[in-house]
Amino acid sequence: MSNFMEYAIQLAQMVKGQTGINPPVGAVVVNNGRIVGLGAHLKQGEKHAEVQALDMAGKEAKGGIIYISLEPCTHFGSTPPCVNKIIEFGLSKVIYAVKDTTLPSEGDAILEQAGIDVEYQYSEEAAALYKDFFKAKSGQIPEITMKVSVSLDGKQATDLGQSKWITNSEVKQDVYHLRHTHDAVLTGNGTINADNPLYTTRIPNGKNPIRIVLAKSGNVDFTKQLFQDSSSEVWIYTENQTLESPNRNIKVICIDKCYLKDILKDIYKRGIGSLLIEAGPRITSKFLQTDFINQLIIYYAPKIIGGSGKNQFYQTADIIDLNETTQFEISSTELINQNLKMILRKK
């Protein structure tokens, strides 16, 4: 893989989590071995990476090569097709790292008919970046990461509900970065009442996610600090048709039944492409029994809490046979000042 393609993939990685339901894409325009344009898709509804790079290159793009982390789009959405822009600027060649199987038409054929060479230069690194995007687009639900902070024996809190702080301050900083890279964070009304969290990033120039609260009964305490904070919107999903928002920052979304799949599809329709789950054992356990989760991140503190296990992060009503348990693969591990961060994906 060329250095230019590596740069394009790095640009895409840098904007992951800020493009909504659109994919993060990076592009590099090269002419006579010199970079003349760089671009990344910065925000849903704004210029795509290819357009950014071509606009920067200007007349120097003519006869050049564009390296793109993902196959250029061929359809009209909130912006025109990128293949049209590539043809307009007179490039001689397009090289991309991942084929977009969700495109409605064949981009290669369109470009080749315009006299532009096309090369599919597969990259495992780029493919890993788009794997969850393709799944989300196909299912029309967000890419989902679940985060839990627990003791060695899997407790999110003591039997008396004490949970501040199981993990250390460095883990909190890592979680702030996680929130920054997701469009929204989802939790339950019970967690809001028990912990009074804010779910903001608290990092310089950090992007605060939309806060989503599942409150089936609608028994919401609007005095909690999350509802008083205006740094980002709060969405409440409820079955209570009488629940009213106290201000414009809080959006009450009433649905007939608070089924997870219906909620996730509605969240996706509203432009949320990446969702972080930070919740208590009840909601955490519900999600872990579904196929919705793309990634599970567990922060382990070197502590043993004990007790009855009522705040164990994963609980089921049924006893599951060992042969039928959900299997995970460990993607990576990291030691954060004696706390262990483990990133897992379902097999």
From TrEMBL:
Binds 1 zinc ion. The keyword Metal-binding applies. NADP(+) binds at W165, T191, D195. InterPro entries: APOBEC/CMP_deaminase_Zn-bd, CMP_dCMP_dom, Cytidine_deaminase-like, DHFR-like_dom_sf, Eubact_RibD, RibDG_C, Riboflavin_Biosynth_HTPR. The gene is ribD. GO terms for biological process: riboflavin biosynthetic process. This is Riboflavin biosynthesis protein RibD. It comes from the Bacteria. It catalyses: 2,5-diamino-6-hydroxy-4-(5-phosphoribosylamino)-pyrimidine + H2O + H(+) = 5-amino-6-(5-phospho-D-ribosylamino)uracil + NH4(+); 5-amino-6-(5-phospho-D-ribitylamino)uracil + NADP(+) = 5-amino-6-(5-phospho-D-ribosylamino)uracil + NADPH + H(+). Pathway: Cofactor biosynthesis; riboflavin biosynthesis; 5-amino-6-(D-ribitylamino)uracil from GTP: step 3/4; Cofactor biosynthesis; riboflavin biosynthesis; 5-amino-6-(D-ribitylamino)uracil from GTP: step 2/4. One of its GO terms (molecular function) is diaminohydroxyphosphoribosylaminopyrimidine deaminase activity. PROSITE patterns: CYT_DCMP_DEAMINASES_1 (PS00903), CYT_DCMP_DEAMINASES_2 (PS51747). PANTHER family: 2,5-DIAMINO-6-RIBOSYLAMINO-4(3H)-PYRIMIDINONE 5'-PHOSPHATE REDUCTASE, DIHYDROFOLATE REDUCTASE FAMILY PROTEIN (AFU_ORTHOLOGUE AFUA_8G06820). In the N-terminal section; belongs to the cytidine and deoxycytidylate deaminase family. Its cofactor is Zn(2+). Its EC number is 3.5.4.26, 1.1.1.193. The active site is at E50. Keywords: Hydrolase, Metal-binding, Multifunctional enzyme, NADP, Oxidoreductase, Riboflavin biosynthesis, Zinc. Pfam families: dCMP_cyt_deam_1, RibD_C. Substrate binds at S163, R179, R202, E278. Zn(2+) binds at H48, C73, C82. Residues 1-118 form the CMP/dCMP-type deaminase domain. Converts 2,5-diamino-6-(ribosylamino)-4(3h)-pyrimidinone 5'-phosphate into 5-amino-6-(ribosylamino)-2,4(1h,3h)-pyrimidinedione 5'-phosphate.
